[in-house]
Amino acid sequence: MSIEKYTRNFLKEVEERVEEGHWVKMCMQCGVCAGSCPLGAHWEHTPQKIFMMIRAGKREEVLSSDSMWMCTSCYQCIVRCPRKLPITHIMHGLAYLAKREGLAPKNQPTAQFGQLFWDNLIKTGRVNELKLSLGMYFKDGFSQGIKNAMAMQSVGMGMMKAKRLNPMEIMGGHGVKDKSGFQAMLKKARELEDGRRKLA
Amino acid sequence: MTEVVATNQTILVVGGGISGMTAALEAAECGKEVVLIEKNPALGGRVSQLYRYFPKLCHPTCGLEINQRRVKQNKRIRVLTMAEVTSITGSPGDYTASVKIAPRFVNENCTACGDCGDAAETMVDDAFNYNLGKVKAAFLPSRMAYPQRYVVDPSVIGTPEADKIKAACKYDAVDLAMQEETVQVKAGAVVWATGWKPYDANKIQPYGYDRFANVITSVEFERLSDPHGPTGGKILRPSDGKEARNVAFIQCAGSRDENHLRHCSRICCMASLKQTNYMREAFGDEGKSTIYYIDIRAIDRFEDFYQKVQADPNVKFIKSKVARILEDKDGNPVLHGVDTEGYHRYATPHDLVVLAVGMEPSVSAANIPAEIVSDSSGFIEQDQANGAIFGAGCAANPLDVNRSVQSATASALRAIQVINRVARAEG
Amino acid sequence: MADMKVAAYICQGCGLGERLDTAGLAKVAQKEGKAAVVKEHPFLCNAEGVAMIRNDIDNEAVTHVMVAACSRRAKTEAFGFTDVAVSRANLREGVIWVRPDDEASRETTQEMAADYVRMGCAEVKKMKLPAGNAATATNRRVLVVGGGISGMTAALEASKAGYQVVLVEKGAALGGWAAKLYKRSPSRSPYADPQDTGVDEMIAAISADSNIKVYTNSITSKTEGAPGRFKVDISQESGATVTEEVGSIIQATGFTLYDANKLPELGYGKSANVVDQGGLEALAKAANGGPIKRPSDGGEVKSVVFVQCAGQRDETGTHLPYCSGSCCLTSVKQAMYFKDNNPDIDTVVVYTDLRMPGNGEDFYRSGQNKGVTFTKGKVSSVEATGNTCKVNFQDLILNEQTAIENADLVVLATGQVANSGVDVDAKLKAEIAAAAGDSTLLDAYNASQAEGAVKPISVLNLTYRQGPDVPQLKYGFTDSHFICFPYETRRTGIYSAGPVRRPMDIVQATEDATGAAMKAIQAVENAAVGRAAHPRSGDLSYPIVRIEGCTQCKRCTVECPFGAIDEDEKRYPVFNESRCRRCGTCMGACPVRVISFENYSVDTVGSQLKAVDVPDEFSEKPRILILACENDAYPALDMAAMNREVYSAWVRVIPVRCLGSVNTIWITDALNSGYDGVMMLGCKHGDDYQCHFVKGSELASYRMSKVGDTLQGMGLEPERVQVFEAAITDIERLPKLINEYSDQIAALPPSPFKGF
Fold it and tell me: Selecting from 1.20.1250.20, 3.30.365.10, 3.50.50.60, 3.40.50.2000, what CATH number does the domain B199-359 have?
């Protein structure tokens, strides 16, 4: 979709399709969010800049930005925003839209982790931590996986000792009682959300 | 006992700053009787604590002198200092205000000779200098103080020092038995001109005003820059007395912020631009200023002043609301944030940070002892429902001096309209 | 003055009794001061001391009182007798507080005090209690010129106070600029939506008000007189002229939008779809709440761009250098016209600083909430093609050159130009600039005066000697230069209100107009009793001229900062008391010294300086006269005294109303009497002048620059007479300055005129 610059098209899309997206128009470009983010130095665009880009109609650039994926939900930006924008929520909402639109950056570690986590969770309704960890280690190939596992060895051992990680989980692990009910619930939720946010 | 002659043709002006003085004078110079109430021991208000005015860089005491002379020679104005209005009853053309007068412990015999001050030993906070310095417990509020009469601080009352202070006065001016009193003042109309106060910077948590000695407010910076302030006009930072040659000015400290003040305080941009001139005055090319701002609101002819400051290579402008301040090992405040023009992250140490704190009403409309319609920030709105109680100056809106005086002049007319109606009705 | 009886009172309080020989001073008052009554008192300002003086006035027929105590600025309640002439000898702040309390200084300190007693006695004898020239100017009606929001507000507010008003409007109907608006920006909480202009209600209120007489299609073609007695010719379009008599004038002639034709790069004139803010109001009015139509083809506007600061805040010198302070509000309001009709319309405001102070922040938020897009950027050009426009700009946040491609409409926020009439100082300003090497202003002025040139049209058509309109401060606005005193312009009883004085929005204009109405009714009340207006408010003295001595040199008429003096057909000065601010600049200017005030004259000061006992040339006691501005320098000296700053015992200080009132005869008299030097302390002049009488201190330094010839003629060194700028804050600087000057003078040989 090509968007004419500084028209409402993309802003309107964000307002409709992104959680708390209707707040984007309220930003006054003070930049306090940008300076408040503890991970700020590590991403491409600051939140306030993302908001300006939305108003400027830069759909591709916004949705392919890595910025939303770097949010750790510390809420510093929300606390300080003089316009009370729920920035954290907007950033997550944008990330979700980007993902659904297939524009999220490839090989972005947070995005990858998110996908792994989700895939892991929906299988049984419980997070299988061992599989999740291994999945993370080996996402970049076998030899890199071994290296990662070795580097994290002491942490893993510690977790096992503290009974926070069960090696037996490799066999399949625990899950919720009514797995199919759980999955049906997720499906329905997704349907509702997709309908509401026009994500079909 | 203080005696006040007032009728329902008297105008009661509450607040003796530049707005209140103006309203009182304009009305009195039009032939009206005025009672002027001031909470502090002297007239002049907040402007008398400024070093210079923007954009002329002239001195507020210059206008204060004229206003004081107008008050001194005008027999229609009765001034009550250390006084506060505690209630207003009645209706337009027929109000009665209760005025609580705190004891000054010095009567009108005082000649301001200073003997009591010499006798006093205890040092108390100097409110005139925003408590950045101390004064003797028997003090003249400032050199320009009118009434030109000393005050004995209540903290020494009942001590042997008070007796010593009393004994030092040859003119029987020290009266230690003075009590708080309440007088009733009749008035046909009221001008409420209680002005503004700086927003409490402690509430702006990320800036660390409560934690870092070298983070101060713009009103404190005025006193530091004033040759008659606590540092003799040397811009020294509080932590170690080092000259502050590299100063950051943070705009919208409290203002334009729904976590603090919803409104724009109007004056702060110009005040900071003005204060960069203090830096130049103190240090020449060695004085560096950086202004962190959202929008520079230098409206009308003030734009000239802005352009002049912009042309100064020693002043930098960064479009950014500073995110937070940390302190380095040398006690330098380090400002963290992002310059939003483009995208430039900074972590910049300065010698001193000046928070351009916003204005809030000194007495919020909710605390005025009468039914008053106000805006969401507590400033008085013009409304029929307020009867003959009229807001003036910064009690009505965040205004600069010039606009405060215009507002005060307008409010004097509104009061006169009521008084003249009363006069006509009474023949 | 057969019944003059002078009484001298010498206070012994505040250390005067200990530091000075007050009995000696009493003797001086009696013998040299020729006071009929001389009394010392241990505490003169207390109730008993004051009662003593009161009793002498009431029962001993004392008519002239000399109080030798503290500064004239102190204890004003105690010594503020209004029924006798009073002079003050400043022995406390002027003598003992600025002199060391030691044996070595005792003699010179006493001499200082004795001189001030002599001076006080000499002065008071030359003073008369001002009676006030009442009943010459008693008209209490107010003329309001301009029938826009400001003018209508001023008229209604003055009327509400019980005053009659004459309201003159050039156009066919009242309403001015506001009548052209679809709606106005909000004036009340919650500051969220445009509101009705209220113009119709105001017009209805005015027509229902029997106090207000309205002339439409009319101009003020001639204005003569002074506060309390103006005669104004009102010329109507029909050709008829009526004369109205009024007491004061409010000029509320508003503004004109800056001509957008000067901005071709922004597409104005090239496409009908580029309009200024006025143009947009017209479109909105036509739409009346419905869709706003594109001028080029009547198509509905789907996207609109607002270009802020168009031709404003211009640093190149081509367009307006200032900010109009109201256009941001207006653009947000206008964007709402679109959004309130259809939220899907694209409305972009391109700004560099969004300037919406005070509650404007709420309105900004409301605009955002309605979906107006704000972009910090600088527009470089607008290209018009067919029915759409392309707005090229630098996005300052995204840091890129970009464009909005298909705008149906572009609105240029062009700003306010004051309708202030003729710049009466244009020639003078141009000449000053030319003298400084910049002849552009002078060229422009000469071009404007050439035959066939379009000359600016006067608004008030004053018959004043100094020109037909109110002087302008900067950029054509008539604003006052005084921060503390916004209504103090240079024409007494004529007040500016609204955008003619400063670019502003309606909220401010309303407040300003109400304030101006206050000043206008005050002016007529003052004129009626002969009282001065600010800054010598309440002063009943006024200039008295001994016209038979006048040489028609016109210096007073030219130099009066307030245009108070006209010339008659024989070129004699005609003083208009109610225009006068009592600064005494005319008195200072007059070479033949025929101008004086009852309580302030060439004599009151001259006799003081001559009363000083000048020691002979062998005494090694130089004498230096200081003439200090009473508004700033004198209070600074008082405060220096409160700090116990020490300065030379050689100086004798005389406060003057303004340095502009200093007549050069005082200088020559002083030098002829054997003074070794004369020092003048006055306020800052120049662009940021601080002189309370605008031009006084500037004129003084100009006059004194010519004193050199006189000094040369007398065979005296030029440094014997010097003018210094002094501010009220110069509390430490002035004593230093005095001491340096005093040392400089002491190093010169004694004046050869001593003992003559």
Answer: 3.50.50.60
**Subunits in contact with chain A (3 or more CB pairs closer than 8 Å):** B, C
DSSP assignments along C169-202, one per residue: -SSSSTTGGGGG-S-B---STT--S-B---HHHH
C361 touches A: beta carbon within 8 Å: no
Mutation target to probe the B interface, by most B beta carbons within 10 A, among A28, A29, A30 is A30
In a domain, C714, yes or no: no
Which region among A49-63, A169-183, C283-297 has the lowest average model confidence (pLDDT)?
A169-183
Residue C549 burial (CB count, 10 A): 11
> Is residue C581 within 8 angstroms of chain B, CB to CB?
no
Please report residues of A whose CB lies closer than 8 A to that of B323. Answer: 31-36, 80
Element (H, E) at C90: strand C85-90
Residue A179 Cα, gap to closest chain B Cα (Å): 45
Q: Beta strand C624-629 with C595-596: parallel, antiparallel or unpaired? A: unpaired
Query: Distance (Å) from the C-alpha of residue A75 to the closest C-alpha of chain C?
Result: 23
pLDDT at C1: 46
Give which of B34, B363, B19, B82 is closest to B185, Cα–Cα: B34
Q: Do residue B69 and residue C73 have CB atoms under 8 angstroms apart? A: yes
Residues of chain B with CATH 3.50.50.60: 10-102+180-195+362-426, 199-359
The answer to whether C484 contacts B414, with C-beta atoms less than 8 Å apart, is: no
Total domains in the fold of chain C: 4
B53 touches chain C (CB under 8 A): yes
A141–chain C nearest CA distance, Å: 38
- Chain B: closest CA distance from residue C325 (Å): 5
What is the domain extent for residue C327?
A: 257-417
Q: Closest CB to B406: pick one of C512, C535, C643.
A: C512
Is the Cβ pair C358, B399 closer than 8 Å?
yes
- A36–B324: do the CB atoms touch at under 8 Å? yes
Q: Give the residue ranges of chain B where pLDDT is below 50.
A: none
Of C365, C396, C417, which residue constitutes the final position of a domain?
A: C417
Alpha carbon distance A66, C208 (integer Å): 68
Check which CATH number belongs to the domain holding C305 and give it. Answer: 3.50.50.60
CATH of B10-102+180-195+362-426, one of 3.20.20.20, 3.30.70.260, 3.50.50.60, 3.40.50.720: 3.50.50.60
Segment C221-271, tens digit of pLDDT: 999 999 999 999 999 999 999 999 999 999 999 999 999 999 999 999 999
Beta bridge partners of B192: B14, B391
Contact B337 A48 (CB under 8 A): no
B118 contacts chain C (CB < 8 A)? no
Domain boundary at C501, C529, C557, which?
Answer: C529
Predicted TM-score (pTM) of this structure: 0.96
Considering only CB atoms, C368 lies closest to which of A4, A26, A56, namely A26
Report if residue C431 sits inside a domain. no
Same domain, C481 and C550: no
Query: With pLDDT > 90 as the criterion, what percentage of chain C qualifies?
Result: 91
Residues in chain C: 756
How far is the CA of C142 from the CAs of B418, C500, C518, C547, in angstroms? Answer: 19, 18, 11, 32
- Residue C346 to residue A29, Cβ atoms within 8 A: no
With CB atoms and an 8 Å threshold, state whether A45 touches B343: yes
What is the count of residue pairs from B and C with beta carbons less than 8 Å apart? 238
Residues ≥6 apart with Cβ < 8 Å to B192: B14, B15, B363, B368, B372, B380, B389, B390, B391, B392, B395
